User: Which sequence fits this backbone?
């Protein structure tokens, strides 16, 4: 049962990290154009001209 | 994350909301050079790169970013880069582009409420998953101290999460109670409070059952429903605003020496503006100089252009056809007749909202029922055991297990699926209950000009003209921008006619075109001016020397109009044509398209009255129209649709808007609305069956938290999956 003392905090921390990541993405507008983003990853432009 | 106060419904007229804001923004930040263009045709990765490449190559453009979801591109450009130029570059490259009024759109840029809901949903899902994990440990047999520890950790996660994520429900429930009403959020709030309260109490006493997982699961499923509902509404609102933003109101103001392009909102009474042929008049005023013909079809439904000369009044919304005119402004912006009518309709619409949606009807039955059952259960158990703790526990279990998750998801899941589907087919739903109302339509009323027809005329009997006559007619028609001339030129060119050589060709605004052919005068224009006998229908008249010819025209049908009418009739619907145009034109047209019932020369008030009467007689009327003269009827109908080309006021007054040229999506919408209503009813059925099975268990005290959580999730998932079956 001692393992619970580690597992519960670990699961909470990992979940919390996911939550913070989601919050950050939401703030950055990553969900503003889901349809366009799905197509953008298919474009060559990004790979050929990486941002400096 | 501020409070989620939701008493204000989106106004019936999005343009009305946006207009003051747009003016305010225009006043504050004139240097904001961000240009928004609508790109209705884009659909793939190639389009995104294509559009961005074209725009970035234009001098003065710093950056361009396409949003495919909204079919829109934001261009960061220098102040002096004209949006028209950007549109032209895109059109040349093969992408349809229209300028959008960035001021009107600013209101939809950041969807703060949507984001707040999404954030709450994320927190709720996070908390639910963790609490569920702990609960599984308890359910699988944790005992004594371990169980208490699990319960305490659950409480530590669930209590703050429930307080934060449930806010929309608490606020709404409090508002309802303060107003002396019961709504769906009251049992939700009570269930959450009771569940958390009794669970905490049980945990403190090292009890066996805690409902933290159920409370947070309730929040999660309900927030999912709320978010879906919000998305449907927000999509509709932003698209409606986009339609409003498509008319960028500009005017050419005469300033001392020359003219300057200004925003129509900046015009003041007394200003002089110039309206060029092909332009729409932005204000109410009087013609002070020039003579022209006006297309008043959006105001009156008449297809024939009306002559306007010095001293005649003109109104916002009319299109100038042949000659340049100078107009003295009498009323601009919100004071024009057009804007006033739009306002009146918004008021009328707010008043007509007496339709009870299926969801509201369900909530009305549900909310009191649940409370009574829970109270009876608590009283019964208290009388039986004389133990308040047991009684409260049972009441909490009843409230949780009757949780309205399934009910809360039943309608939004279906309407979201249906409106997304219809949007892809070219139909935009502005009002959440419009689909439900569309499902019981039995009478369809159409406007003629601009709705069933394109508003563009087509020349008839051209084959009857001999070669010389047609070549002279083509030469004259080529010289004018008048819609009849353009249609004539188009028809003759298609027949391979070559234009005759004319001399001294000149347009007389308001009359026609004249010239000289082989030494004799030739004219094309109005009957009285040409000296011909006027026909009853729309016609242009040609004179060559002493001979006169009449060239009749008919409106071209809009795409899908004929198929739509045929399908509606064979579906057993009553189809009526209600037009403001003259009688012969209407009866010809009705015969052509196969409509038996028609009314001609209907004034706007008569149209509205006719629709209202049908409504009072128990018919469910669908009104389809596009003009100023239809707006009152659109607002009076049970449900209304207007094409994207319609006047802003008409679009604002209707429940659905067609985004493309074709009328056929109306048929799709009717089919979808019927199947959507079937799904909603099925969902209510699922929710009721579930409640009927689960409530006795809860009242009998057999409902452990495990059963509550499983049953709740099962019912919510069933309802969501059922919504996806929508065809």
Assistant:
């Amino acid at each position: 049962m001692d393992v619970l003392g580690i597992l519960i905090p670990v699961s909470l921390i990992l979940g919390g990290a996911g939550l913070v990541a989601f919050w950050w993405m939401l703030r950055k507008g990553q969900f503003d154009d889901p349809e366009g983003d799905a197509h953008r990853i298919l474009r060559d432009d990004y790979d050929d001209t990486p941002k400096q | 994350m501020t409070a989620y106060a939701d008493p204000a419904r989106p106004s019936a007229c999005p343009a009305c909301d946006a207009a003051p804001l747009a003016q305010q923004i225009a006043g504050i930040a004139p240097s904001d050079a961000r240009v928004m263009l609508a790109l209705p045709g884009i659909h793939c990765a190639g389009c995104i790169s294509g559009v961005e490449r074209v725009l970035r190559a234009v001098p003065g453009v710093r950056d361009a970013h396409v949003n495919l979801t909204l079919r829109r591109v934001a261009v960061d450009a220098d102040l002096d880069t004209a949006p028209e130029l950007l549109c032209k570059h895109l059109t040349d490259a093969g992408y349809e582009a229209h300028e959008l009024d960035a001021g009107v759109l600013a209101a939809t840029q950041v969807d703060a409420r949507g984001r707040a809901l999404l954030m709450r949903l994320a927190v709720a899902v996070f908390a639910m998953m963790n609490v569920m994990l702990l609960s599984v440990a308890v359910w699988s047999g944790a005992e004594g101290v371990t169980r208490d520890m699990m319960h305490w950790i659950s409480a530590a996660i669930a209590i703050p999460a429930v307080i934060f994520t449930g806010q929309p429900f608490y606020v709404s429930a409090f508002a309802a109670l303060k107003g002396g009403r019961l709504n769906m959020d009251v049992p939700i709030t009570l269930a959450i409070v009771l569940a958390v309260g009794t669970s905490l109490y049980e945990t403190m006493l090292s009890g066996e059952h805690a409902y933290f997982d159920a409370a947070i699961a309730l929040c999660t499923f309900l927030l999912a429903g709320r978010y879906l509902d919000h998305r449907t509404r927000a999509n509709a609102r932003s698209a409606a605003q986009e339609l409003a933003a498509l008319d960028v109101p500009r005017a050419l103001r005469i300033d001392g020496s020359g003219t300057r392009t200004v925003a129509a909102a900046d015009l003041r009474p007394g200003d002089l503006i110039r309206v060029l042929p092909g332009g729409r008049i932005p204000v109410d005023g009087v013609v002070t100089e020039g003579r022209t013909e006006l297309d008043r079809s959006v105001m009156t439904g008449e297809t024939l252009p009306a002559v306007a000369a010095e001293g005649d009044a003109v109104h916002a919304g009319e299109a100038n056809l042949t000659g340049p005119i100078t107009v003295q402004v009498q009323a601009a912006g919100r004071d024009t007749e057009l804007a006033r009518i739009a306002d009146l309709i918004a008021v009328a619409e707010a008043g007509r909202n007496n339709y009870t949606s299926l969801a509201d009807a369900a909530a009305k039955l549900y909310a009191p029922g649940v409370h009574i059952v829970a109270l009876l259960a608590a009283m019964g158990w208290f009388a039986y055991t004389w133990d308040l703790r047991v009684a409260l526990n049972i009441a909490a279990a009843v409230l949780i297990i009757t949780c309205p998750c399934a009910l809360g998801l039943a309608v939004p899941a279906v309407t979201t699926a249906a409106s997304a589907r219809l949007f892809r087919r070219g139909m935009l739903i502005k009002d959440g209950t419009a689909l439900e109302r569309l499902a019981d339509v039995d009478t369809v009323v159409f406007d003629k000009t601009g709705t069933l027809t394109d508003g563009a005329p087509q020349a008839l009997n051209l084959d009857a003209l001999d070669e010389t006559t047609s070549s002279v007619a083509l030469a004259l028609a080529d010289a004018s921008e008048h819609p009849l001339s353009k249609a004539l030129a188009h028809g003759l060119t298609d027949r391979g006619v070559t234009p005759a050589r004319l001399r001294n060709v000149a347009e007389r605004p308001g009359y026609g075109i004249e010239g000289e052919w082989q030494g004799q005068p030739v004219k094309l224009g109005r009957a009285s001016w040409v000296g011909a006998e006027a026909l009853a229908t729309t016609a242009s008249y040609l004179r060559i020397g002493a001979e006169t010819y009449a060239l009749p025209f008919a409106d071209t049908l809009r795409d899908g109009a004929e198929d739509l009418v045929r399908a509606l009739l064979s579906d057993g619907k009553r189809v009526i044509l209600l037009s403001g145009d003259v009688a012969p034109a209407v009866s010809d047209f009705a015969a052509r398209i196969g409509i038996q019932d028609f009314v001609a020369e209907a004034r706007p008030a008569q149209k509205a009255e006719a629709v209202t009467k049908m409504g009072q007689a128990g018919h469910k009327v669908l009104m389809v129209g596009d003009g100023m003269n239809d707006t009152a009827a659109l607002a009076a109908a049970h449900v209304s649709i207007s094409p994207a080309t319609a006047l802003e006021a008409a679009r604002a007054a209707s429940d659905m808007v067609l985004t493309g040229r074709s009328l056929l999506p109306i048929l799709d919408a009717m089919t979808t609305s019927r199947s959507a209503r079937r799904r909603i009813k099925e969902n209510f059925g699922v929710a009721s069956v579930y409640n009927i099975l689960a409530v006795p268990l809860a009242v009998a005290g057999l409902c452990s938290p495990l059963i509550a959580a499983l049953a709740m999730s099962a019912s919510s998932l069933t309802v969501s999956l059922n919504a996806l079956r929508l065809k």
Q: What stands out?
A: Chain A has a mean pLDDT of 79.
